[in-house]
Amino acid sequence: AKVIAVVPAAGIGSRMQAERPKQYLPLADSCILAVTLDVLLSHPAISEVVVALNPDDTYFSALPQAKHPKLRQVIGGAERVDSVIAALQLIDTPASWALVHDAARPCLTHTDIDKLLSSRSQFPHGAILAAPVRDTMKRAGNNGCIATTVPREALWHALTPQLFPTAELLLALEQAVQAGVNVTDEASAMEWKGVSPGLVSGRVDNIKVTHPDDLPLAALYLEYHRH
Ligand code: C5P
């Protein structure tokens, strides 16, 4: 079955406090989104990359990746989930797998993509890249005090890519949104449908660039990966 990458890139990155959307901030001689797209476009198992853009986007058309034969564009929505749904609706191959990956995670490696793709035999309903929590976890109570310590043994950070059969994922996302579920990743919609997606251990340096401090860190990781 075909693997089609979906890249939600329609956010405005309000937490970055930058003059342009964070996916267009400079990174490794280009920008965050260009680096992310290059990782996906250059992977031999990915036949197509659908990128969801903000309706007011004025930057994307200037990227060299915009003209890549594997790339398609779609207008995203108000929330990340709406952008993913818009992209999935463009994919008409019923037997395909959708590999959903945040534009803001430029440090993804082909090795981690391969690991996730290989997990399909073990997890036929889909899986996500994830990393075990390292710190001791606290649940906050009132007035800034610790209410309790949460056992961290079973806790994972949900990363992307997240890989699911396209038709099953689209249905789950649409129904979860309809039901008012707060869908912050693809897996949460599948879980709501009663599916238990697999956890595939991924690199902890596959960070989501969210705050200004994350950008030099992403640059450092990319440099590190090259050596
Ligand atoms: O804001 P956050 O970092 O959680 O966004 C994760 C990803 O979802 C980013 O790549 C962002 O561009 C994308 N997004 C989107 N449509 C929205 C909001 C966020 O495609 N409405």
From TrEMBL:
It comes from the Bacteria. Keywords: Isoprene biosynthesis, Nucleotidyltransferase, Transferase. InterPro entries: IspD, IspD/TarI, IspD/TarI_cytidylyltransf_bact, Nucleotide-diphossugar_trans. One of its GO terms (molecular function) is 2-C-methyl-D-erythritol 4-phosphate cytidylyltransferase activity. The record marks 15, 22 as: Transition state stabilizer. The record marks 152, 208 as: Positions MEP for the nucleophilic attack. CDD domains: CDP-ME_synthetase. It catalyses: 2-C-methyl-D-erythritol 4-phosphate + CTP + H(+) = 4-CDP-2-C-methyl-D-erythritol + diphosphate. Pathway: Isoprenoid biosynthesis; isopentenyl diphosphate biosynthesis via DXP pathway; isopentenyl diphosphate from 1-deoxy-D-xylulose 5-phosphate: step 2/6. Its EC number is 2.7.7.60. Gene3D superfamilies: Spore Coat Polysaccharide Biosynthesis Protein SpsA, Chain A. HAMAP family: IspD. Catalyzes the formation of 4-diphosphocytidyl-2-C-methyl-D-erythritol from CTP and 2-C-methyl-D-erythritol 4-phosphate (MEP). Belongs to the IspD/TarI cytidylyltransferase family. IspD subfamily. This is 2-C-methyl-D-erythritol 4-phosphate cytidylyltransferase. It comes from Shewanella avicenniae.
